[in-house]
Structure formats: structure tokens, C-alpha cells
């Protein structure tokens, strides 16, 4: 949590119990101490709301919401702690999404899945929706990040 937060700038999205977030300018942080399927859906709604607040709309918002859904779902599916932090920020005409968790495993794109497989395509979606994505290992976990192109001329 950020020590600079005060009660006036803490954003508590409805339906996400135990969640604290910081929204300042074109940077947004959200701590998810207990990721569940309901948290994933709630987080997607919060991301759409924040991007709307930043006056962003259209395909970039749809792409960012889907990327967040996939990355937070991976926390639920593949980490023991099922906790993470989400960061959104604009860097010029790019929206950067980062999800940090304590998991030591590095996510892998699965290629050649059977047609009837019901999972395993999340990172392929992230790759398709992003101009770039990757994983940074940390001493205490990892950050999976994605960059989504904003419309040309977007000033964030």
C-alpha cells in the first residue's frame, strides 16, 4: 500500500471486499488480497470505470479490460496466495497494465491445444491484444505486464 494515500483519495469499488485502490491522474493501483472469480469480474468493471474516467473509450478499453481479466484470472488459477496488485498507467499513447503476484512460476503461452480444451489460451489473447507483453521476475514473485496501444493523438 502507498503511504501517500489519504482517506479522500482511496477508491473502494462496490462488490470488491477488502480492496483498496489509489487513483491519481493517469496512474491507478489496486490491491487484490483475495482473488476469486467474482473479484476478477469486479476488477474488470473497475478498470473500465477508471479508463472511462480518464476519457478513454473504444477498442483500447476493451483490450485492456480483457488483458486484466486474463492476468488476474491467472493469479486465481496458478498461484497459491491468490493475491495480487494491479497497476494501470498511461505512457504517451500506450496504456500499460501490470499484475504483480508472489508466484514463482513464469506463465507460458500454450500452443497446439486440442480444439475442445476449455482453458490455456489466456496468454495468447494477451499477446494478440497487446503491442508488447512480458514477465519480470522479482525476488518475491513476478510482474506480468502488457502494453495496449491507445488511439493516435490520445493525450493522457
Automatic annotation (TrEMBL):
Keyword hit for Chaperone: no
Keywords attached to this entry: Kinase, Serine/threonine-protein kinase, Transferase
InterPro entries: Anti-sigma-factor_SerPK, HATPase_C_sf, HATPase_dom
Cross-referenced CDD domains: HATPase_RsbW-like
Histidine kinase/HSP90-like ATPase domain boundaries: 36-144
Name of the protein this chain belongs to: Histidine kinase/HSP90-like ATPase domain-containing protein
Organism of derivation: Streptomyces thermolineatus
